[in-house]
Write a structure and sequence with these properties.
DUF742 domain-containing protein; DUF742; 45% helix; 3-stranded antiparallel β-sheet
């Protein structure tokens, strides 16, 4: 069974990233949503062009890696290239409010308790 990205030829991955093994930016984690801001142009690296086509709608980094069949680390490097040239925008999805953020102010709860005791 062939695993995408794992059994990839290391020489090809080296070429795709221009010899880089790490992204210059930590802006892209697995769930960062990426949206393309431009269309592919002639002469553009095929992986960059594929990313721009995939990201017409907000797409998570892990989905992009899956669609391309490349390791996430390689995709992060490619995304960094596109982000640096303004061809994509990235944002982390909103997190839900924590339980502490949803609770009422403790002072209000004390006042309610005092009011209930006075009944």
């Amino acid at each position: 069974m062939k695993r995408p990205g794992r059994d990839e030829d290391p020489d090809r991955l080296y070429t795709v990233t221009g010899g880089r093994s790490r992204s210059d930016s930590d802006a892209f984690d697995l769930v960062t949503l990426v949206v393309s801001e431009s269309q592919p142009t002639p002469g553009m690296q095929s992986e960059h062009a594929s990313i721009l086509r995939i990201c017409n709608a907000p797409t998570a980094v892990v989905e992009i890696a899956s669609d391309l069949g490349l390791p996430v680390s390689i995709v992060r490097i490619l995304l960094g290239d596109l982000h640096a040239t303004g061809r994509i925008t990235a944002r982390h999805p909103r997190t839900t409010a924590t339980a502490a953020d949803r609770l009422p102010d403790p002072e209000i709860l004390k006042q309610v308790l005092v009011g209930l005791r006075n009944l």
